[in-house]
Amino acid sequence: MTASSQVKLKPGDTIGILGGGQLGRMLATAAARLGLRCQVYSPDPDSPAFDVVQHATCAEYADVEALELFANDVDVVTYEFENVPAATAMILGARRPVLPDYTVLETTQDRLAEKDFVTGLGIATARYADVSSAVGLRAAVATIGLPAVLKTRRFGYDGKGQAVIREGDDLDAVWADLETKSAILEGFVPFEREISVIAARGADGAVECFDVTENQHGDHILRVSYAPAAIPEAVAAEARAIATKIAAALNYVGVLAVEMFVVPGGDGPTLMVNEIAPRVHNSGHWTLDGASVSQFEQHIRAIAGWPLGKPVRHGNVTMTNLIGDEVNDYERWLTIPGATVHLYGKGAARPGRKMGHVTQVTPSASPKP
């Protein structure tokens, strides 16, 4: 079984998950409900996903022997976060199907490669430029203008590895502080709201998109998501079409998220793609309680070769992240009618650390005010 078209799991088969965070935990829980087993591979001995599976491997991603033993125990491999080394996925891919394919990581792990890929599809993004030195940064600023955002090309998330540059800032100091030799400068986008589309694609090319989600961030971390987003249906349809086009171009199997900006204009709002996340995504957590099928179940169905579900939203949904010490408020949330609390089983509640989330569903199917 070496090609994605040949993957057809049956109940009792085993899915290997690379990464042991909350996304892996929720993927394993979704798989269990469908009668599928999971084995989690993570270098972190405190991985919360270890708590919900019978078998786990705690080893470094570069440990070839551990990877080979892991591959022997599973029928298909997937990953819960996009910074799994592409070499790790390649090693496993020689032994078991890896879905989404490891070549997806080569595009999405590098912000410049990702931007080139998206623009190559004729989809709008912020203006951008490759930057590899302080001299290059000054040249990029002269071309892109300010304000702008300087980001490391790899390994950034939740605002890590990036800096906003404004008029008067010391560009040499900004470059030095980022501590990288490979970055991308992105022009500032005067957006009116941030949205995302969670899309699932099967090996047969079938695609199902959840309702477009509106996201609010604080300190570069997702705080609250609303479904559906308060945007015109024509814009929502375009957002879904963009996500579908990206998934097809990647020959993607599984769930991915496409983050976008809604940009106001005289002829109505337009869309710009911000980032692609080749995995289940924080902004799709509302689907656990707010839709007929969750993003986690959709991903499991896709990589198992099973039919995708048709997502039906149960109402107007709000998802609130519990970040850091906010998790200590869980008892208050438990007393709120209609609120469903999800705690991730993590240890210390450090600032900025996602510890859980709460979903609230109301009967109205109309967008929020």
Number of strands: 17
The parts where pLDDT drops under 50 for at least 5 residues are: 1-5, 365-369
The number of helical elements comes to: 11
Q: Encode the helix/strand succession as letters.
A: EHEEHEHHHEHEEHEEEEEHEEHHEHEE
CATH architecture of the largest domain: 2-Layer Sandwich
What distance lies between the first and last C-alpha atoms, to the nearest angstrom?
A: 50 Å
Features:
globular; disordered N terminus; 369 residues; D-amino Acid Aminotransferase, Chain A, domain 1; four-stranded parallel sheet; alpha+beta; Dna Ligase, domain 1; 11 helices; 3 domains; disordered C terminus; Rossmann fold; nine-stranded antiparallel sheet
Characterization of the model:
- This protein is an alpha+beta fold and 369 residues long.
- The protein has three domains: 4-98, Rossmann fold (3-Layer(aba) Sandwich), CATH 3.40.50.20; 127-187, Dna Ligase, domain 1 (2-Layer Sandwich), CATH 3.30.1490.20; 193-362, D-amino Acid Aminotransferase, Chain A, domain 1.
- It has eleven helices and 17 strands.
- It has helices spanning 22-33, 64-73, 86-93, 102-108, 111-120, 134-144, 171-178, 233-249, 287-290, 295-304, 330-334; strands at residues 14-18, 37-42, 55-58, 76-79, 128-131, 148-152, 162-165, 183-187, 193-201, 207-209, 213-218, 221-227, 254-263, 270-277, 316-323, 339-343, 354-362.
- The strands form three sheets. Strands 9, 10, 11, 12, 13, 14, 15, 16 and 17 form a nine-stranded antiparallel β-sheet that branches. It has a four-stranded parallel β-sheet with strand order 3-2-1-4, sandwiched between helices. It has a four-stranded antiparallel β-sheet with strand order 5-8-6-7, sandwiched between helices.
- A hairpin with a 2-residue loop joins strand 11 (213-218) and strand 12.
- Helix 3 (86-93) packs antiparallel against helix 4.
- The longest helix is centred in the middle third of the chain and has 17 residues, at 233-249.
- The chain is globular.
